[in-house]
Amino acid sequence: MQLFFWVLELIGTIAFAISGAIVGIKKEMDVLGVAILGLTTAVGGGVIRDLILGQQPPRTFQDPTCALLALGTSLAVFLSFYFGKHFHTRRLPDALLLLADSLGLGIFTVNGVAAAMRSHEEITLLLFSGVLTGVGGGVVRDMLAGDRPYIFVKHVYASASILGAVSYMLLYGRVNETEAVWISISLTVVLRLLSSHYRWNLPRVAAPQEPAAPHSHP
Fold first, then answer.
1. Is the pLDDT of residue 186 over 60?
2. CA neighbor of 66 nearest in space, from 132, 12, 110, 144
3. What is the pLDDT of residue 86?
4. CA-CA distance, 13 to 45, in Å (whole number)?
5. How many whole angstroms separate alpha carbon 163 and alpha carbon 191?
6. How many CB atoms lie within 10 A of CB 102?
7. Of 40, 53, 61, 208, which residue is the least packed, with the fewest Cβ within 10 Å?
8. How confident is the model at residue 20 (pLDDT cuts 50, 70, 90)?
9. How far is CA 191 from CA 65, 118, 199, 201, 205, in A?
């Protein structure tokens, strides 16, 4: 299973690197900015996970495989949009961003829970590790891009991660571990996509409106 989770992490790294690179392109960053945004999006959640679990230094700094993969993916995305015309349709990058971000969220959420399970049993820590691993990269991406993080304002981003983490914790030991992983990832991705399509959002309090200034008459 260790190899299986390693492959999953590579897939999640590619997915999050794509999402970070696309955000950088949409923000009209140069190639270095796009590469850095893709890199930090891809490895940010894993670094947060390792710090929570007390792994020093984080695995990203011990094995550069994921970091190099993220940089390569980000540069490939930049070049494909730089030399292609499809970015100007706008619908393609938006759809690709959503799909890549949803897949990365699902994979890293489950990977975060699985990593915590190897050395800890506290339910709170398992859930915390899974959700922060899943949403951490997106939060870093949005902050570096100058946006309010998706987790606070857009759809049910964190809720999808929580669903994936809880479902994996409930399925673990009751079904085949591979099945538990794919079911949990699928639930996260599907909820994320449905919330985007149907504009599902958590309740929020609207900011009070300032009273209109009275009209002055000559």
1. yes
2. 12
3. 56
4. 10
5. 9
6. 23
7. 208
8. very high
9. 30, 27, 11, 12, 23
